[in-house]
Amino acid sequence: MADLAKGDVLLVMDFRRRVTLLKPIVEHANRVGAKVVVMTDPTATELPARADVALRCVNTGSAVFDSYVAALSLLNHICSALARALGGAARQRLANIERLHDLYGDLQR
Questions:
Q1: What pLDDT digit, counting tens, does each position of 63-99 carry?
Q2: Which of 37, 38, 45, 68 has the smallest number of CB atoms closer than 10 Å to its CB?
């Protein structure tokens, strides 16, 4: 947050049982001129009104609990598109992350 500036994009995920800290974070992004993309469910009103882009994902259906399948699929697409756009830099970063996982042994294989 300290380095967030004009030209940056902040992706915020805001689903039911909303986190109160997101509002001041988005307000900070607005103040510094960063673009804000909010991924949320259709019931959200406050953060989408402060965002440059609102991506609404239906999360209700016949199940007892909310479903985040649509949101996770969209997030996967966004991350994949960004990695393709960044090219080698993204591959290098992911390789560095994998090396850290190997170093610390925090993931089962």
A1: 899 999 999 999 999 999 999 999 999 999 999 999 9
A2: 45
State the sign of the Cα–Cα–Cα–Cα dihedral 83, 58, 13, 65.
Answer: negative
Enter the pTM of the model: 0.84
> Can you tell me the distance from the alpha carbon of 100 to that of 94, in angstroms, rounded to the nearest whole number?
10
Sign of CA dihedral 50, 70, 1, 24: positive
CB 4 within 8 A of CB 32: yes
- Block residue for tokens 């004009």: 6
Contacts of 101 (CB under 8 A, 6+ apart): 107
Q: Report the top-level CATH class of 9-104.
A: alpha beta
- Residues linked to residue 92 through DSSP beta bridges, in sequence order: none
